[in-house]
Amino acid sequence: MSTAVLNLLPTVPVPAIKPPVEATSLTYRDLERGPFWQKIPAYREVDEKQFLDHSWQAKHTITNIAKLLKALEGLVSPAFIADAEEGFKRAPMSVRVSPYLLSLIDWNDPYGDPLRIQFVPVASRLLPDHPKLDLDSLHEQQDAPVPGLTHRYPDKALFLPLDTCPVYCRFCTRSYAIGLDTEGVEKVHLRANDERWRKAYEYIASRPELEDIVISGGDAYQLRAQQIEDIGMTLLAMPNVRRLRFATKGPAVMPMKILTDDAWTDALTKVVEKGRALHKEVVLHTHFNHPREITGITQDAMNKLMERGITVRNQSVLQRRVNDTPEIMTQLVKRLGHVNVHPYYVYVHDLVKGVEDLRTTLDTALYIEKHVRGATAGFNTPIFVVDAPGGGGKRDAHSYEYYDRESGISVYSAPAVKAGQLFLYYDPLDQLSDTMRRRWADPAEHEVMIRLALAKAREHVR
Ligand SMILES: *Cc1c(COP(=O)(O)O)cnc(C)c1O
Ligand code: SF4
């Protein structure tokens, strides 16, 4: 009998009993505890009380290259140090690394370490930018009615009250604004400024359709307690505003602030409680990318927020050699769930200057998504999105109108955001075939490939 016929026969029911799983294999539950930071020569004498002190972390955060390289002396080879020095010279982001983060990096393997890759550039691994890349690829500034307020979607807006963060990430989409100017990039500055904030509030109040405000930056960790309260209470008082999210990288790079900066955590709690009394949602959005960023300290911090009834959601960025395998992404998702953080999004890496080595193909994102979905609760399963270059907003990665894996061009539409327009995303060139790389080396060929992709997409779009 052929297999085709066999498949049509009723199958004999097999008892669906799952074999037990060895408890020791559930490694997402094994969180790093103990004085792991004492491996770093500079922190050998630092005890737990000091390490958990948020002001000690802030004060010892490394903000220039010379200090970083000094902290690494003896931990890594001089060749690596020279490579990093050159890497920073060419990077669009300035340096900012917390002691906590520095301690989580495995300096025995600086080239392979997934945390090092995200924060410390090395020149030898850099790749040329994609020819279609510009600095503000999401066109946040073009969709901004007031500086630092992006109104792209019908009912929600992104408010950037300031332009600093507790750390600076290589992959930052806002490298056009965040941090200090670098050798290559002079930035648009969005300082904490009453007049600018007032204009943003006026705009939000004048738009009845705006219900949902993301307070990002920069980073809400950098706001003083009083500013958290002022922004939160001002927005909650507007009848049209129904939902607030404070966005911060903080829990991933300095979780102890939640444990020891009582003023800050209390201010957030106050806004959440005020929201609850008004039947409005106030939550925290954060940004973990790798399971090793979640430690026992993180768990203690997330427990504190849970006890206060504060919902935390996570947005990750998919990055090559950081989290671009089904195993690592599944481990991240399970570990986030374990510390009561909801995985919300995984972003396919934006087209950002100077970090081509971090981007993956769209195909990689689709493959990982397929493996992650089903591993845990649906509400703890992130949606993989492409933030469409040119301001189309976030699109489910699977929802492309057309994707040519050969040229690496994908095409999206966003009917609810910018009806009638098509948006293009490009896979990194080094992942394409030699033939395709040669085509991309010829600017005359770009238009040919793009026109073809758009024509194919138009056949499909509705
Ligand atoms: C991401 C984003 C939002 C929030 O979008 P959600 O899909 O609701 O998380 C709002 N405005 C802008 C400009 C954004 O980039
Ligand atoms: S914390 Fe966020 S905004 Fe700040 S540098 Fe990192 S990715 Fe950019």
From TrEMBL:
<keyword id="KW-0411">Iron-sulfur</keyword>
<keyword id="KW-0479">Metal-binding</keyword>
<keyword id="KW-0004">4Fe-4S</keyword>
<keyword id="KW-0949">S-adenosyl-L-methionine</keyword>
<keyword id="KW-0663">Pyridoxal phosphate</keyword>
<dbReference type="InterPro" id="IPR013785">
    <property type="entry name" value="Aldolase_TIM"/>
</dbReference>
<dbReference type="InterPro" id="IPR007197">
    <property type="entry name" value="rSAM"/>
</dbReference>
<keyword id="KW-0408">Iron</keyword>
<dbReference type="InterPro" id="IPR003739">
    <property type="entry name" value="Lys_aminomutase/Glu_NH3_mut"/>
</dbReference>
<protein>
    <submittedName>
        <fullName>KamA family radical SAM protein</fullName>
    </submittedName>
</protein>
<comment type="similarity">
    <text>Belongs to the radical SAM superfamily. KamA family.</text>
</comment>
<dbReference type="InterPro" id="IPR058240">
    <property type="entry name" value="rSAM_sf"/>
</dbReference>
